[in-house]
Predict the 3D structure of the following.
Amino acid sequence: MTGTRVQLLLGVSLLSTGLLSGAFGYGAANLVPTFNSVPIEMRLDFHAELMKMNGITVQGAMAVSALSALALAAVTRKRTRVLAGTAGLLTVASFLITRFGNVPINGRIKQWAVTAPPADHAEILRRWELFNDARTLTAIAAFALLISIALRRPAHDRPTTDE
């Protein structure tokens, strides 16, 4: 594959994974503390509404991020292949954590918003936050790996041992 196509795949990977890790990072740093400082009814209403929009945008970013990183791994060699493949797998991990950790709890939160939270709601919300932290860390790690690929100098730019 030509260098231009590899650079395009790297660019798409960086953009989508950066958006994903930024969204998760913003949520962990700003939304979760805000959720925890407002009355539970307000949190549930806002959380339920937020998930309607997040479902589309976050899943899209995860799909593009995983597919572009794995495609980059498929068309490159050596260290770049390993880094890109690992970034793709970390993004898949973010998806799996979201799908099997956060999403089921989001469904419960939607129900609580129209009824009432159960007595153990604080523990369930704490689990949601742990899943959120895990998917945030996997997305940030994937982004960091892709950045490391972008910062590596191409072989033709590296000095030889004679220089």
Remarks:
- Residues 156-163 have pLDDT under 50 and may be disordered.
- The chain is about 85% helix and 0% strand.
- Residues 29 and 133 are 10 Å apart (CA to CA).
- The first helix runs from residue 3 to 37.
